[in-house]
Amino acid sequence: ADSSEAELELVAARHQPEGLEQLLARTKFTKRELQSLYRGFKNECPSGLVDEETFKLIYSQFFPQGDASSYAHFLFDAFDADRSGTLCFQDFAVGLSVLLRGTVRQKLEWAFNLYDLNKDGCISKEEMLEIMKSIYDMMGSCTHPPPRDSAAAEHVELFFQKMDRNGDGLVTFEEFLETCQRVRSIGR
């Protein structure tokens, strides 16, 4: 009876999510895991949709020592695959499935998409600096000793030294993938 109630719950949302079978096919979650995720999602977002401001509020609860709003903005954009300006349960479940259970390549594609802020297929130093600054802002006072003001820019320079194989000031997905795979094989 519990599983049939949860299936009905999946159907009864104001925003009609995909059917459970379609989500099972699109994610690497079990039926029980999807049902549990859905209950948590609906608890935080009763309408079945999350706008960016609500997402920022929810995400900021995990980082009370800093300002997570910029990083939450970038995460929201990465999860909002259809660029609708809202996240539905499908967006959340599919993105989470990639992050938790995707192949290495799928995870790298997701990360690259997060860093490629203007979605032009390349990561620029400016884009990477925005992401790095947002991470430092989010971590806030929990880092000891506190980072130097130049720490984000230094991280960006190191990233580009490793990733920008042709030295053009941009990192393509191919450069990103090749470098990550090389580093991964060295670590084995």
TrEMBL record:
Listed GO MF terms: calcium ion binding; DNA-binding transcription repressor activity, RNA polymerase II-specific; potassium channel regulator activity; RNA polymerase II cis-regulatory region sequence-specific DNA binding
EF-hand domain location: 67-102, 103-138, 151-186
Keywords, alphabetical: Calcium, Lipoprotein, Metal-binding, Myristate, Repeat
Record-linked PROSITE patterns: EF_HAND_1, EF_HAND_2
A biological process from GO: regulation of potassium ion transmembrane transport
Regions crossing the membrane: none
Parts forming coiled coils: none
InterPro entries: EF-hand-dom_pair, EF_Hand_1_Ca_BS, EF_hand_dom, Recoverin
GO CC annotations on file: nucleus; voltage-gated potassium channel complex
Domain of life: Eukaryota
Family recorded in the similarity comment: Belongs to the recoverin family.
Stated name of the protein: CSEN protein
Lineage: Eukaryota, Metazoa, Chordata, Craniata, Vertebrata
